[in-house]
Specification:
The complex is a heterodimer of chains A (about 270) and B (about 240). By secondary structure, chain A is an alpha/beta fold. In chain A, about 30% of the residues lie in helices and about 20% in strands. Chain A has eight helices and nine strands. In chain A, α3 packs across α4 and α4 runs parallel beside α5. Chain A is globular. Chain B has a single domain, classed as Orthogonal Bundle (MetI-like fold), CATH 1.10.3720.10. Chain B contains ten helices and no strands. The chains are: A alpha/beta (about 270), B mainly alpha (about 240).
Chain lengths: ~270, ~240
């Protein structure tokens, strides 16, 4: 692409710069030589990672590869030495299970911990943005799985995070809802421009959403793929090649399709987990 | 057999002399006696005395149980200091302590209220402590990730999460306080439902005894209704309380 420094979505925004090529822009996330152990097990091994402001990074990895540990570290939920991990102060997490407090109405869940008298207005605005403007006053237990995840997204966005951490947020919703959630996340990302780290099992989801896909294996970044395709990216000529390389990095050797456009059974998310 | 049939049979038995009044008074005479005691003010006055004792014991017991549970539930040090002695004491049958309480506190109001206090502290403590420890750690973690800590975390997440368990404890405490009240009031009381029963026993007034038993039962039902109303409001967020 001859426009390597132009963001495919937003031409006024500089595209994220690869880690090996340090940029003048201060990264939103900087991890240097980070190691994390649980007892004798090394979960993350001398890890380096930069995420540029506004960059959408997806993190793939098998169960136990350390990807959740990395997300938790960036979220400040696990301890880390200050000099090896630097993150923006404004960060927010969306968990796989929405984790709404069942005893608070939706808008109060979104406004949880917000300072100031305008907390309700801000919560309402965020809920309207995710399409839940009509459910401000209901109890979380009445929401569907997709609605709960949208509320969780609103709760994260209302904090105007510079870093948005998504921990397999679409794993528990049905396929149709997942597609809608992908669109929603992309549109919110365009509007608010946080750096995003999406942890997922789903290779297609990673390629569909992210600027850059990382594969974590045994606590190291084993592969890195830039995805310079214009969105929406449901298909496209480069899609299968990127997919094949990522699957190989995940330990799955996939034969290329014998006939272009022919029917091929790709391994599914379940086969990877 | 419906209760109404039972009462009719009972009345029939009393009328025909099968059940003599010194064994059990007829339902009709029980109603008559109840009306008389109500109008004379004897029943309301003694009921208030009993209610006052139960309320005082409950208030102290709920406070004490809650404070201990919060201390033990929120801190490791508190758990080590509070939980072992409480778990040890709770195995004591409370009523067995009444002789000791009479020696310590005499025969006035104090031993009665102390017994009820003790009997309500344990169910509150045990349930609230378990409730606090049982709050979903994932919710606490999520709230922490959104910047809640310290007192805010306790008020917004831990205590509401433990509320269902607390209300269960409250139910047990109310039932327990009633049971203890009945026995405690037999200790040389000069007023209260227990005093009425004791007096009636001395004069073989089975009608008065039955009236008092019915009042005990009604008060117990009332207490249960109060807790259920509390649950309906405080736990309105639960699926079972949400109107479809």
């Amino acid at each position: 692409m001859g426009q390597a420094n132009i963001h495919p979505l937003n031409p006024t925004r500089p595209i994220a710069v690869p880690t090996e090529n340090p940029s003048p822009i201060e990264p939103a996330v900087r991890v240097r030589g980070f190691t994390r152990r649980f007892g004798d097990t090394v979960v993350l091994r001398d890890l380096n990672l930069d995420i540029a402001p506004g960059e959408f990074v997806a993190l793939l990895g098998r169960s136990g590869s350390g990807k959740t540990t990395l997300l938790r570290t960036l979220a400040g939920l696990d301890p880390a030495e200050a000099d090896s991990v630097r993150t923006p102060g404004a960060r927010a997490v969306v968990f796989q299970d929405a984790r709404l407090l069942p005893w608070k109405r939706i808008w109060r869940n979104v406004a949880l911990g917000l300072p100031g008298a305008d907390a309700r207005e801000r919560a309402e605005a965020a809920l309207k943005e995710v399409g839940l403007g009509h459910r401000l006053d209901v109890w979380p237990v009445t929401l569907s799985g997709g609605e709960a995840q949208r509320a969780a997204l609103a709760r994260a966005l209302v904090r105007e995070p510079k870093l948005l951490l998504l921990d397999e947020p679409f794993a528990a919703v049905d396929a149709l809802t997942r597609i809608r959630m992908h669109e929603l996340v992309l549109s919110l990302w365009r509007t608010h421009a946080p750096a995003v780290l999406l942890v997922t099992h789903d290779v297609d989801e990673a390629i569909t959403l992210a600027d850059r896909v990382l594969v974590l294996d045994e606590g190291r970044i084993a592969a890195e793929e830039r995805v310079d395709l214009p969105r929406p990216r449901e298909s496209g000529p480069q899609f299968p090649a990127i997919r094949r390389r990522l699957l190989r990095a995940l330990g799955l050797e996939v034969a290329p399709p014998p006939i272009e456009g022919g029917l091929v059974a790709y391994p599914t998310r379940e086969a990877l987990s | 057999m419906s209760p109404l049939v039972l009462i009719l049979l009972w009345e029939l038995g009393s009328r025909t002399g099968v059940i003599p009044p010194r064994i059990l008074a007829a339902p009709s005479s029980v109603i008559q006696t109840a009306w008389g005691m109500l109008v004379s003010g004897e029943l309301p006055m003694n009921m208030l005395v009993s209610l006052g004792r139960a309320a005082a014991g409950l208030a102290i017991g709920i406070t004490l149980g809650s404070v201990l549970a919060v201390i033990a539930g929120l801190t490791r040090a508190g758990e080590h200091a509070v939980d072992p002695p409480v778990q040890m004491l709770r195995t004591l049958p409370i009523l067995a302590l009444s002789p000791l309480f009479i020696v310590w506190f005499g025969i006035g109001e104090t031993p009665k209220i102390a017994l009820i206090t003790l009997g309500t502290t344990f169910p509150i403590y045990l349930n609230l402590y378990n409730g606090i420890r049982g709050v979903d750690p994932k919710l606490i973690e999520a709230a922490r990730s959104f910047g809640l800590k310290g007192w805010d975390l306790i008020v917004e997440v831990v205590l509401p999460g433990a509320l269902p368990a607390f209300l269960l404890g409250l139910r047990f405490a109310l039932a327990g306080s009633w049971l203890i009240l009945v026995v405690a009031e037999q200790i040389n009381a000069s007023a209260g439902l227990g005093y009425l029963i004791n007096n009636a026993r001395d004069f073989s007034r089975t009608d008065v005894i039955v009236v008092c038993l019915v009042v005990y039962a009604l008060l117990g039902l009332g207490a249960d209704a109060i807790v259920r109303t509390l649950e309906r409001h405080a736990l309105a967020w639960r699926a079972s309380f949400i109107k479809s």
